[in-house]
Amino acid sequence: MSDKDRIRSLLKEAELYKKQSLLTQSKDKYLNVLQIIESSRQLGNREKLMDAVREKMRAVEEKLTEIDEAPEVPELSESQHNLIRKRFSFSKDKDKAAIEGAVALAKFGQYEQALEQFKKLLKQGVLPVVVAKNIITCLLSFSTAEAAVAQFGQWVSRESLSRPQLKQIRAFLNSTFEKKGIKAEIPKLDEAPAEGGKEDEEEDAVLDLSSISIQLESGPLKGETVEFDVTFQSGNSVSVIIPARRKDLLASVKTGMALSDIQCFSPIGFFRANGVLFGKTEIKDGPKQGDYLLEIAINADSP
Amino acid sequence: MANFNFKERVIECKIVYYGPGRCGKTTNLEYVFKAFKKTTSGDMVSIDTKGDRTLFFDFLPMGLGKIRGCDVMIQLYTVPGQQKYSSTRKMVLKGVDGVVFVADSLEVRRKANLLSLKDLQGNLKEQGHSIFKLPLIIQYNKRDLAEEGFPILPEDVLERDLNSKLKAPSFAASAVKGTGVWPTLKECMKLTLLELQKELKWAG
Ligand SMILES: Nc1nc2c(ncn2[C@@H]2O[C@H](COP(=O)(O)OP(=O)(O)OP(=O)(O)O)[C@@H](O)[C@H]2O)c(=O)[nH]1
Ligand SMILES: [Mg+2]
Questions:
Q1: CATH assignment of B3-200, given 3.40.309.10, 3.40.50.300, 3.90.550.10, 3.90.1520.10?
Q2: Gap between the Cα atoms of B17 and B33, Å rounded
Q3: Looking at beta carbons, which residues of chain A come within 8 Å of B25?
Q4: Which of A191, A237, B14, B63 is deepest in the core (most CB within 10 A)?
Q5: How far off is chain A from B150, nearest CA to CA, in Å?
């Protein structure tokens, strides 16, 4: 092939890749062309040719920077928000699904809409501590530490949350600030009205977990990490399911087994803990017949 | 996991189009939306950037009629192929019942195909699925480019690269022209529904 033909075909490729937004590939082809022109003995007018190719390449480079600098989070319509809420929540439980939907909004960077949903849920009294923590996380993501503190101050001065709940939320705010190196004064609880809110609402010290992964320490899968969706959670214990066909996995877990490394994924982040497997039972009927239900107690205070 | 709602007699399942950036996932869905309007049950929703790259996902709901008296709804999704959107891919993959892996036939995308398939395998594993067991179809897209003399990989090379271990059903396609799009999807729906029926067996 003559240099001219090679150049012609490379330019055609470069144009195609540009059109398909395969920009790095397009740029590579232009670079190839430049090399050929530079070292060619057959071609006349080389400087002019190279200028023309460089010009084309510059257009590709501009597109590349444009993409790098484009905002990562687009503005979405209300129906898109609703779609995300509906399609990215998986729990059968209505309240949990609502929280998951709002968390999905946050995960897609739609913090303001997530916040709106969480506030609604808090008003409805749905898992107040979990929801309040999510509100704090949202505020810290798209607003300021001051806004988070102000929000907490509002909860303290109103009567919608109980003292134990406020205590949990304050501890969360405190540890989040510590982790992020934020110095801010968090309202003290002494100023809260003594009798406010529903006192003894049952709520988890452990966050609402969506999945956990555990490292297996014995059996055929020794050393492997496996992830499970949490099918049910009550306080610090969670249930997960092992499908009947996972014989290898079933052989690797037994009741009483200590789990020294559990990764717990909650809607608002993840943490590591240890725990104990305290139940392993076969499911006798229903769609999951033959599968096994594992019950795991998670020690949330573990280092 | 498919969602059975026996009270309302609805079964919902989820098929995800996976593959490297710019391989033609969105184009597949656009074609389905355009050409099979009758089977779709709502509008296609795309959340993308200015450059037409998928940023979050595309979504297209379809209705497949009834199985055992239940309405079968299938939701099609695409993931963003660009490497940096890894966490979004994981989110979109959640609850998946079947996957169409769209490979780019362009020679320059050979490595990108491999990386994306590996990424799929890892993400499925994280969610407790095995790429060998989940209903999976592979599509070799952009075959039309051969006609214009562009360097594309022969099908047997793609097959060897991507499918020698998986042995998944595979289809050649040109999503812009629409060839191969429906056979790919049809086969994926077939496998997904077969799997579903296994799960449904207990119901009689
Ligand atoms: N010639 C040709 N071009 C195609 C084909 N399929 C897609 N394209 C083009 O390839 C480019 C990318 O297509 P998309 O459908 O946006 O690719 P994608 O996989 O959704 O890309 P991401 O959203 O970035 O992951 C577009 O310019 C399409 O027109 C095909 O079969 N033949
Ligand atoms: Mg796309």
A1: 3.40.50.300
A2: 14
A3: none
A4: B14
A5: 7
